Amino acid sequence: MAFEQLGDRLQSIIKKVKGQTRLTEKNVEEMLKEIRLSLLEADVNFKVVKEFIANVKEQMLGEEVLKSLTPGQMVVKIVKDELVKLFGDGDNELNLSNKSGLSVLLMVGLQGSGKTTASAKLASFIRKKKNKKSLLVACDVYRPAAIDQLKTLGQSIDVEVYSEGTQVSPVTITKNALGYAKANGFDNVIIDTAGRLHIDETLMQELKDIVSVASPNEILLVVDAMSGQDIVNVASSFYEALRVTGAILTKMDGDARGGAALSVKHLTGVPIKFIGVGEKIDDLEAFYPDRMADRILGMGDVISLIEKAQENIDEKKTKKGFHRMMDGKFNLEDMLEQMEQIGKMGPLKGILKLIPGMPKISEEDQARADAQLKNTRVIIQSMTVEERRNPEILRASRKIRIAKGCGKTPADVNKVINQYEKMKEMAKQLKAFSKNGKNPFQ
Fold this sequence. Notes:
This protein has helices at residues 4-18, 25-41, 46-60, 63-66, 71-87, 115-130, 144-156, 170-183, 201-214, 230-242, 259-268, 289-296, 302-312, 315-326, 332-343, 348-353, 363-381, 385-389, 396-406, 410-433, and strands at 103-108, 134-139, 161-162, 188-193, 218-224, 246-250, 272-276, 284-286.
């Protein structure tokens, strides 16, 4: 995951500082040297590193900080504030204002950056987060597969795609799409344009023509986060030609360094508005500089965790399961339901990062957790309804039959039952600790 390497290094440095009783010029210099190295190793542009270190140094050597009784807290605050500045706090919100009744989002970028997928992800995001109806517009007429890809993605998220094939110019398609969107009650259009292997005059002129016709609210540059420092060059070129309003960094889950993202806003003036964190259609996150700074420094991101839970967890089902647990009616169906609800929030590794103070888990631990959930699911689904609802009837013969039915062993079945028994025991303890046995959800 992006920034993982940088986060590990900065957290280690800050941990050392917290062991200091006072900050001195000597230990500040030592710390800044380590921070500088960690930023460079994370692929942050050297100009950005130089300015970042200068700003942090100036604040750390201030009289108030040097005399502070809690140097660790002061360092965390200073470093976090500077990270937020680098990321570009204040201009990261998506502009969907539509005085004319329709907002327009223009997607631009080089070929292979992930524009088409990002367009569909953005449409899904806007519907779920903003409750607005999007029309996807296929303007990449040079790559026939792009149109088919957009149609397939649109169908998968139930978002309409406007297309006129490959024989009509992108400018004409844009004009017609805008008319269609206004006539059919759409809130916004998302225009997927063609890319090139490199920046050229033909590409830029075509995009300028589309801009003149569409007057977009946002011109969003889609950039592959794994392209390293080339992100800065691409962003600069597009900004100079089109005055790009924001960037979407794709494949942020594929680079543990991610330092180029720290350089984009500072060097080009283009704010990061979204990051792609996976291949699924919902793996697009709005970019919040303060939240990302918190994650990098190991402070968690409780707000994002709550939002993720609200989006993915069925509150009624969760409350029902909790009530049943507290009332002693909890069964294997309930246990599987609760596990599935948590699984909807994404990989355990990602969830733990959002909780302050939680330890990191390795890829091996993540794989084991995924395997355990999968085993639990297939074993419980191999049981009869009566067995799932009344686990106490599970004797040896039934366990053997269940194990054969799902390709597992009786020992695997016993593990699931033991897990269930532990959850039941935990429910008894929760009930005993709650005041007068009152359910906290009531």
